[in-house]
Design brief:
The complex is a heterodimer of chains A (474) and B (213). With 474 residues, chain A is of the alpha/beta class. The chains are: A alpha/beta (474), B alpha/beta (213). Chains A and B meet through helix 2, helix 3, strand 5, helix 5 and helix 11 of A and helix 4, helix 7 and helix 8 of B.
Chain lengths: 474, 213
């Protein structure tokens, strides 16, 4: 009998190009995604060494981080951003890499369009110079973020030198209650394990609550895996995965698809496979989550209060909490539902897919954004999602309720374009990071689900969406 | 890459846990096209007041730590974004060594691509180094990579662990692309048997550049 293997080990084993004792293995990379932010120096490095892109056919480029979400027929006034776009265009042209530029009908956030177009497929290895590459793990791929030197390495060799990681099994048992979404599940997981709980590990998610999620929901969970310290998070592919993939532009057709599905079905951890660490949660115990601090682990259920720094036993945690509360302009003991909001951002590679927009739209239909809200943005993750949402009339629902309906990109998650959260203003944001200054200098971010963000926009402060009639759409 | 063997330098204590890479190099500096010049903007929002006036409250601006080349900090250093601009900033500022109880994976990895030694010591050892660095003006350490030790002039000597392959990369200043390309025949062989391809079955709106091969 062979030793049971984890999903991670199966993918690892099938990608080893070279290994020798005491050295990292050379593993093959099936898909390399690049964007304007972290690739220019990699191409310069190649040029300086006289090296070429080995597999331009396996490399896909997109403009997403700095693109405007307003009218793109206008000239780009941000000179630095324009130079970045020009550099990406030139690098792709010279090396034969396919590019979704900002005018492409399929342009979008790199981690949104990979799956949407079927570039992402089960069993692959995928890397990108972006930490949220973990998103693609929702398809049972080994996908993780890399630095620019490694981008250069993959461009030159289509391989990466890697050491075998430890494995972490995260099991979410039972059914999730109405109003509790994939975002709440992953925030609750990070709240439990901490932002470095998964460091050194590759995570695999399982359990009824994960199986019950749509692909959009699974992508949200895998996306934020990095916020818990693990570079990659995966969900074994199943019928939900296959149904999502069928018919997408880069997915094989007919008999080839059926053969692929048979292969993909083998991509699961064998019964009895050993993980280095296991974490279990019960979905029924998870409330809608709201972050109150300056990292994603500083999170609580919506019915909770902002914690007292002295409630933490560790001195470093006390200091970090004190600092976070000063930065966030919050007093310990404040009920989370009493926190007023200035701006709302529904978007990012975490929560800008069609299910997210449907959930938010379903809540806001017939309602209006509170007077105290200065701006409420909806930024679809891709132009494909934008078109789909418009077909369903979601854009009309949002604009009628007082939201702005924008073009696709990273937008206010990172604020590299004009979509910036002003100093000392407070957002309800569906993005992934509430670090100091993340959405803008001195800005204050509260991470929530699209449903919670929509509800906060209407009320002007956080509310418990479970108090409303919310039917799950995912 | 510049090889690393031993280094002696002044220590600066950055007393914060979970320092993320957004703090090291904020987003407005991610539009650069080169790897240079990030030392000036390292810890930008903490380091500068409006108008780029140095913030006297921030440790990098304390005169006593001027010229420090060893960054002493708390757990989970470098979490968050994969941006290599963070280690580029650390290096360009003049740091050759980071001392912390733990690092985030991607940042840790990126350090080795840039000739920075991220040494791991226990929480207690880091605590002791904080005490000494804050007490003694000009507190310096010698970091010996071949020996895997950190020592001061008062007899303190700590051993640290590092994977032998990581150590070798720093000691030799290896170009890892060159190392990997030595296995080019194996890469080609893998490609023949595994036939990775990305065929487009439906037309999508993409610019299909030819690489002229």
């Amino acid at each position: 009998m062979t030793t049971p293997k984890t999903l991670y080990q199966k993918i690892w084993d099938s990608h080893v190009v070279h290994e020798e004792p005491g050295q990292p293995a050379l593993i093959y990379i099936d898909r390399h995604l690049i964007h304007e932010g972290t690739s220019p120096q990699a191409f310069s490095g190649l040029r300086a060494e006289g090296r070429k892109v080995r597999r331009p056919d396996l490399t896909f480029a997109v403009m997403d981080h700095s693109v405007p979400t307003t009218d793109r027929t206008l000239p780009i006034i941000d000179t630095d951003a324009r130079l970045q776009f020009e550099a990406l265009e030139k690098n792709c042209r010279e090396s034969g890499v396919r590019l979704f530029d900002m005018h492409s009908k399929q342009q979008g956030i790199v981690h949104i369009i990979g799956p949407e177009l079927g570039i992402t497929q089960p069993g692959q290895t995928i890397v990108c110079g972006d930490s949220h590459t973990s998103t693609h793990g929702a398809f049972g791929t080994l996908a993780f973020g890399i630095g620019t030197s490694e981008v250069e390495h993959v461009l030159a060799t289509q391989c990466l030198a890697q050491s075998y990681s430890k494995t972490l099994h995260i099991v979410v048992n039972g059914k999730r209650p109405a109003g509790v979404t994939a975002k709440d599940i992953i925030l609750a997981i990070i709240g439990k394990i901490g932002i470095s709980g998964g460091t050194g590990h590759v995570a695999e998610y399982g359990g009824e609550a994960i199986r019950g999620l749509s692909m959009d929901g699974r992508m949200t969970v895998c996306n934020m895996t990095i916020e818990g310290g693990a570079r990659a998070g995966m969900v074994a592919p199943d019928e939900t995965t296959f149904a999502y993939l069928e018919g997408r532009p880069f997915v094989p057709r007919g008999k080839a698809f059926q053969e692929a599905v048979e292969r993909w079905k083998q991509l699961r951890s064998d019964d009895g496979a050993k993980f280095d660490m296991t974490v279990e949660l019960n979905a029924k115990d998870i409330a809608p989550q709201v972050t109150w601090g300056t990292n994603p682990g500083m999170v609580a259920g919506v019915t909770a209060r902002v914690p007292d720094p002295h409630s933490f036993s560790d001195l470093n945690d006390q200091k970090a909490t004190e600092r976070a509360l000063i930065y966030m302009g919050l007093k310990a003991g404040t009920p989370i539902v009493d926190i007023p909001i200035d701006r709302v951002f529904i978007g990012s590679c975490t929560n800008s897919r069609i299910d997210d927009l449907r959930a938010a739209a379903q809540f806001v239909v017939g309602k209006h954004v509170a007077r105290s809200i200065k701006q409420a943005l909806v930024v679809p993750g891709s132009r494909g999602i934008k078109a789909q949402a418009e077909k369903e009339g979601l854009d009309k629902i949002f604009t009628a309720a007082g939201f702005e309906w924008r073009d696709a990109g990273c937008s206010m998650c990172i604020g590299m374009n004009a979509d910036v959260l002003p100093p000392h203003e407070r957002s309800a944001s569906t993005s992934n990071r509430n670090f100091e200054g993340r959405q803008g200098k001195d800005s204050r971010t509260h991470l929530v689900s699209p449903l919670m963000a929509a509800a906060a926009a209407i009320a002007g402060h956080f509310v418990d969406v479970r108090d409303f009639d919310v039917t799950p759409v995912e | 890459m510049q090889p690393f063997s031993t280094h002696t330098g002044k220590v600066i204590p950055l007393d914060r846990v979970n320092v993320d890479t957004d703090q090291m190099v904020p987003k407005q500096f991610l539009k650069a096209l080169t790897r240079e010049g990030f030392g000036r903007v390292l810890f930008y929002d903490w380091r500068y007041l409006p108008g780029e006036k140095p913030n006297p409250q921030f440790v990098l601006n304390f005169p006593r730590y001027k010229g420090a080349s060893i960054l002493l900090t708390r757990a989970n250093f470098g979490c968050g974004s994969s941006r290599e601009h963070a280690p580029w900033g650390v290096k360009d500022y003049g740091f050759r060594v980071i001392l912390s109880p733990s690092y985030a994976d991607i940042f840790y990895n990126n350090c080795f691509k840039n000739g920075i030694l991220p040494a791991e010591l226990s929480e207690e050892q880091i605590e002791e180094l904080f005490r000494r660095a804050e007490k003694e003006q000009g507190y310096s350490l010698t970091v010996d990579l071949p020996d895997q030790t950190v020592s001061d002039n008062h007899g303190l000597k700590y051993k640290f662990e590092i994977a032998p392959s990581r150590k070798e990369v720093l000691l030799k200043g290896l170009d890892d692309i060159g190392t990997s390309l030595q296995h080019e025949p194996e890469i080609t062989a893998y490609e023949k048997t595994h036939a990775a391809s990305a065929t487009m079955y439906d037309q999508v709106d993409i610019k299909n550049y030819s690489n002229g091969r």
